[in-house]
């Protein structure tokens, strides 16, 4: 969690001493007030503990004006989220719009009206306090989620592994031949262990996707797709499937998550293939403005239109046949990852009577 002062800290930036005095005397009874007479000095104070909770910033200052000061505050990850209110004599609509476009949360013109300044400062500090509280709660939840992921990935996997191992040992040690009921029971135990292990693995991936994505992670989608195909290669071969693919662009996403998306979609096509024809999967990508749009299409049994939203629900299975593989997590995982990356996912009809699942992601632009 971020260390914060007990009293809200307000930094006032103005090159005129009288303006600093007026605003300082107005705010000091309620807040811890810091002052700076230049943009350069303001940037240094903004980094020092206790950091400002709010900055009141003049525009017309020598060497570095308020606009440039705000740009630099926004460029620095340590000061990017500090709310800034311009307090300036510039009162044109264009000046106000420029300040707000640069990221200021408010714009106050001089001469100031004390009651209005107090109200706006109070409102923005209240909003920041709420954001800070939400941030702290998110830190706690992230820690709890990480702990849960550790438990799922390690502690719960071990009993499942032991169940499968001892079922195998039991199968080998029992006198042969086994009667049909015993053979079926052992097969069900081992199949259940495999399903549970797969489900735990998918739940770990799903919960990991709930964590905040790294917005600076650039992924080579071509490489991610290659890895996904290798991971499902034996199942694709057993199904007699064939993949046709286009060249993939780079996108902003964690590479493991993009691999998980491709793996889930290819696996879905394998699981729900049409037994009456050879499986054919087509994976394409095209550019749409600042996004890359991917699609994975197959010639399988398809998804009825009325169920195309439900298939993205967690643990949703449209087919009651539990002999068919699947955990009900794969498509929910795809949706979770894509939407966390500010993309979207949807379903279209495939040209080959199956289904086409499309998703968009922000792409790399030179």
From TrEMBL:
Residues 9-125 form the Response regulatory domain. Gene3D superfamilies: 3.40.50.2300, Histidine kinase-like ATPase, C-terminal domain (3.30.565.10). Residues 151-365 form the Histidine kinase domain. InterPro entries: CheY-like_superfamily, HATPase_C_sf, HATPase_dom, His_kinase_dom, HisK_dim/P_sf, Sig_transdc_His_kin-like_C, Sig_transdc_resp-reg_receiver. The keyword Phosphoprotein applies. It comes from the Bacteria. The modification 4-aspartylphosphate is found at residue 58. Coiled coil: none annotated. Its EC number is 2.7.13.3. It catalyses: ATP + protein L-histidine = ADP + protein N-phospho-L-histidine. Keywords: Phosphoprotein. GO terms for molecular function: phosphorelay sensor kinase activity. It holds the Pfam family HATPase_c. This is histidine kinase.
């Amino acid at each position: 969690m971020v260390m914060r002062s007990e009293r809200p800290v307000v930094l006032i930036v103005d090159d005129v001493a009288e303006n600093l005095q007026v605003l300082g005397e107005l705010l000091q009874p309620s807040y811890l007030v810091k002052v700076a007479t230049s943009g350069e000095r303001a940037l240094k104070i903004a980094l020092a503990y206790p950091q400002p909770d709010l900055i009141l910033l003049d525009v017309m200052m020598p060497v570095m004006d308020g606009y440039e000061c705000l740009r630099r505050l926004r460029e620095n990850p340590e000061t990017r989220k500090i709310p800034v209110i311009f307090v300036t004599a510039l009162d044109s609509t264009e000046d106000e719009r420029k300040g707000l476009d640069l990221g200021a949360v408010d714009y106050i013109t001089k001469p100031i009206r004390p009651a209005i300044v107090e109200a706006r400062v109070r409102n923005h500090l209240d909003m920041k306090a709420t954001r800070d509280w939400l941030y702290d709660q998110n830190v706690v939840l992230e820690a709890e989620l990480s702990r849960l992921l550790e438990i799922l990935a390690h502690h719960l996997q071990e009993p499942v592994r032991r169940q499968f191992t001892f079922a195998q040992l039991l199968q080998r040690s029992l006198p042969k031949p086994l009667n049909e009921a015993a053979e079926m029971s052992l097969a069900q135990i081992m199949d259940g262990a495999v399903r549970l292990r797969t489900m735990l693995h998918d739940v770990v991936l799903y919960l990991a996707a709930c964590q905040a994505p790294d917005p600076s992670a650039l992924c080579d989608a071509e490489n991610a797709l290659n890895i996904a195909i290798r991971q499902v290669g034996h199942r694709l071969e057993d199904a007699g499937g064939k993949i046709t693919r286009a060249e993939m662009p780079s996108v902003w996403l964690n590479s493991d998550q993009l691999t998980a998306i491709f793996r889930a979609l290819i696996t879905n096509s394998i699981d729900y293939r049409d037994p009456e024809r050879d499986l054919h999967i087509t994976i394409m990508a095209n550019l749409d403005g600042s996004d890359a749009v991917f699609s994975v299409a197959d010639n399988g049994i398809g998804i009825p239109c009325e169920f195309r939203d439900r298939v993205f629900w967690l643990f949703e299975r449209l087919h009651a046949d539990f002999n068919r593989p699947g955990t009900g997590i794969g498509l929910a995982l795809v949706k979770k990852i894509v939407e966390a990356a500010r993309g979207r996912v949807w379903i279209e009809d495939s040209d080959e009577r199956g289904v086409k699942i499309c998703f968009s992601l922000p792409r790399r632009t030179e």
